[in-house]
Amino acid sequence: CVTLDVQAACRDTTVTQELLKEGFHRDLLVKVELGEDAGGCAVAAQMRLPPGIYVDPYELATLQQHNLTKAVLFPDVIDVEAPEYLARDLPLLLFLEPDARCSRCFRAAVPVHARYHRPEEGTEEALVVLESPEVLLCCCHSHLSAECWEPAQVDTPCSPDNTSPCQWHSAKYRPAYEESMLRVPVGLREHSSLVCALTLLTTGLCSGLILAAACKYGHFP
To answer: Closest by alpha carbon to 131, among 65, 75, 79, 182?
Structure first.
């Protein structure tokens, strides 16, 4: 009974993920409502982005310079041109900001981009599943409930502006949140022959026009 009471008390923390905008370029919005007061604590969401999406480190650096987002990539150098089948999971630590409308609520957004996928057979969409992030707290001047939070192995300061080491804690008990899914348009395998033929035809036509223009207007010794 004690275990059930502890789990019930710790299930108040909720996480919501939303993919805003349309197309290949989205904003990932993460909202957290804690089950207890965390005044003075840093709140972050630790997640692993699947190979189907990525965060552009150059875009992220620009946003950080303008104080528009606080996020840390591991590693901070990635291949933004790689297709989904050649990419790897991307660890991301997103620092959350307090929500003025709710004392226990925190939120943050980061731009994400979908990678190109292999053509599929019989479907024009590929599904990219985003698992629920891990909620982390770093409290330097207050104590967390030991029943709900346990030390986490996170080697990063409490904020991007602080270089001092910090002990992060993660939720020991939390509900199973629904996973978010991104639908990415893909080509159809049955159209491969048609696409190859049109590509060769277009390439040949353009090459011929360039060669004709070079012969007509070019000056050769």
So the answer is: 182
